Fold:
Amino acid sequence: MAYRAIIASLAVASLPAAAQDLIFSDTFSMRQGEQPPSWTVFGAPTPRFWFVERNQLASGPGEDLGGDGYSYAVIAVPGAEGWTDYSVSSEFWMRSRNGRVILVGRWRDVRNHYEAYVQAFRQTRSAFIDIVQDGKRRTLVYGVGGVGLDIPSFESGAPDRRHHLQFALVGASMALYLDGERLIETNDNTFDGGTAGVGVQYNTVFFDNVLVERSNLIAPTVPVFRAPPPGTAGAKQVYRFLMGTFDTEEEAKRFSGELIEGGYLNVSVEPAGEKWDVLVGAFMTEIEAHQEAAYLEKRGVLIPNIIVRAAGATQYSPVARRRQAIAEIAYTLFLGRWNTREETEALKQRLELDGFFGSQVRTEAEGFTLVLGSFRTRDDAEKYRRLLQDGNYKVVDIAEEAIAEAPGPALVTPRRVSLAIRQSPIWRTLSREQQREFERLMAAEDTGATDMTQFYIDLKKEVEKLRMETRKEISQIVGGIEKRDAKERQLAGLFTKVNKAAFGGNFAEARNVLSKILAQDPGNTIAGLIQDQLDLREKTLGQEIERRLSDAEQRQLKRTLNLAAIRAESFEREQYFQNALLEYENIRSLLTEQKDTLDPKGEQQAFVAKKIENLKTRIALGRKDIDARFDKFQGSLTGFNRDILDLHTGQTELAQSHAETAKFLLILVVGLAVLSGLFLWIFFGVRRRNRLLLEQMRSLTLKPMMEISGGGGAAVLPSEKPAPEIGGGARPVLESRPEAPLAPAPEPPTAEEEVSPFEAEEIRRPATIPTAAEEPETEISMRLAEESPEPAPTVVGDALAEEEPFASLESVIAEPTPSEEGEEEVSLAFDEPAPEKPAADSLSPIETEAEPLRLDDFVIEPEERGPEEISAPPVETETTPLDLDLMGVGLAEAEAPPSPPGVAPGVFCEQSFDDEVVGSTPSNWTGEQESYEFASLVVADDSPAPNSTRCLRFEKTDGIGSALYSRKFPDATGQVAIEFDLRCDRKNKLMLGFYVEKDGDFKQSIYITILTDVEGTAFLRLQGETVPYEMGTWRHIKYLVNLSTGRLSGYVDGETVLDNIRLTNCPRSLNTLSIRDNIPTTGVLLIDNIRIARA
Structure:
């Protein structure tokens, strides 16, 4: 066991390469602000999400995400929906302090997929793998940083501090990696295929270098630099571990047997020239081989080399050693506990420099601990402990730990010296005898040889010395390279100055800079060449030959100038000043070029220059005139547009007026039609009922009259006076009217009332039937209109006065027959008084019979009920008049009693907070939760409303959840006035508002919210209407609402904002005050002087 550190120092991993199976990659190298074409976006509220920014995929402003805060960008290339076993990875950096960085896999749609993500929340980091199935999210596995999981800080990042996130899905296995370290893993087989992508929740993340690679192993992606694979192009190959090279096949087989006993897979012995190699494992890709090697090295097993072999019949396996648990416990060396990670990491680095690999830093509640190794037996642990103590390292204890997989052959050491050791420079420093002794000891594993202990200690010192010398040489080489690079950068700057001075003709400056270059680098050949060029240019500069024009060329040039002058003058006359200016510019260019030949004195150039200045002046004036005309035209156009707008507005108002008029006329016509129909119904109903009434009248009166006129009545009517007083055969003396009545006229006899067919009331008959003289008279009053004055009833006594002899008018009425005895006596009196007649005419029986019957001129006395006899005193009966007012044509009804006066205006809720304790929760106010970590509602006195000492203060410091506070009050109905003072000191772009609701339902409420736009301008929104607002100022808000009609008016500081608008969802009552926000909202809201009363 003493050779482990030596082998660890000597072994060098040689990593050959092969091509990776890459499915998709995107580096986002496209134009700024575009959305990548191979991606599809979900959950993006605006186009400001998922666009390219500085060759990165930017998720967009996370604070603008609504709902659950999730937003995704998913790969949309042909065939992506069929991806099954793969890993998706990306580099990222997160700008926000809180939020999630998400990788999605096997994406079918936004409601069905897997998600793996790391989350930062209040300086706590965690990792999750979730499944989203049918829109419902369920966590499969999670881990929390610091609780058995080491998650580095990735929040509040920057472009130069990127991290690497990978999500691997193979079969039912899934794992999440951060910076190459496995965080969590789980199993689920709900989804077997689908595309991949990235996502965020409530934060801003930048993604880059997105890769999707086909995989059959749950392992992190490790960048590997590859050499061309050996063998025939396209031939199948595997990656294997070269565990050792032996001189004989027997030694190789003996070592392979030990490896097989230790749980290693795919162990084989293969010839390698004159020697024999022992190979372990069979990996499809070098990434898998490298990951397994890292896994084994963490458990103390060093892999000397990774080689490539033809696959042949070898079966692929993602592991080189079985993972079954073959022991319940393992033994670990506990090296100590420290307060800081830096101290622990420093010791770990020293151990690795001395050749002790495999140590681990663990985070515990008391601090950080360092452990080393995982041994199957305590003896192995004790051996390694002695080895550490020989290296002046203290081992505190040997700890026992429960394990879930085999620790491996305690830091396996090959029984033969590997090829990597033989090729190392340290091996060559040993003598031939030392090499042989070393091989013998390794083969025998004789760790107890005391005579060789000092040799190994000396060898270890030599290794340390060689390491230090190598480091020193490397430092010197690196320092020299850095000095050379700095010198080259400085010389490059000086050469730039030389070239700039030479091209500008400043040869003196160029020579001065060259002298500096040669002073720093005397042998610089480039500086010498530049100096030679400067010398040559100075010599040839004074020997420049002037080119002379021939006569023909001069004539042609003059002709060209004349034609240009003619065109320029023509353009100037036609006021094409721009064209003229171009011609004059050409002329000046020609004159300047051939100054000595065409214009030696410069007169033409001066003339042309003057022309050019004049033309520029005129062009400038023309532009000003055009601008002025354009401004005038634009003003006219604006006025025209305004007139058109006014016309459209007038048309709209006229159309609305016509529509309202048509609606009013329609209502009026419908109302008139209804009234007309009602009137006709009443009219014909009254007419029909009057007809029925008259027919009933005839049936009551016609039969007795016919009896009177036809003689069918009784022979004699009983007289009120004794018979002897009437002289037989003597004609009575008639008097038209007595001078004075001797006695008051007797009351008309009261007859039993006939039951009218229109009344359901039954009339009670008297117990005894009175005589004609004693029987009272029943009067039926018939009024056909309310306006008819009620005349005095005509009675028999008035008509006959005291004509006693003709009281025998009863004689013309026959005795009642048995069939008539049961009839009721009826006395009729009509509203229309009968015309007066002479007494004689009215008393003449002959003339009376000759006159036609009139229903309004007679009175029928009741018939005699039987022979005159002494009867009992008359029984008074209650007279019930016949009610003919069946259609509303009767007596005016008594007015209904006045309604009781309305309830006096009352106050439903009033709260000013002046009498409440500062810092306490306002009375009657409660939160949806008992308390919020990110929000509070207290009574404050630092900035109350005018004329107040305290107010309600709502403050939300972090947008990680929603906070709801409310208070109840009695139901407010009818017309209600709502008043309060409001102030907002600060807030972000999301919603914050004050609501007056019905039963806590914000959909049935009167509300006001504070909003800010993209530029930071604040607004108050009253029931959908916005009003400018300055942060930090108090505003008085008032609503007048009629909950019965659904009408609302709103005022801010007395100014009308809403004028009698109709509420789309008007509550029947109000009984709740609420302060509401969104999840990401932050800010401070102050409320004071709340009053809700009847308007």
Observations:
- The longest strand covers residues 975-987.
- The domain at 551-689 is CATH 1.20.58 (Methane Monooxygenase Hydroxylase; Chain G, domain 1).
- The chain is about 30% helix and 25% strand.
- Residues 1025 and 1057 are 7 Å apart (CA to CA).
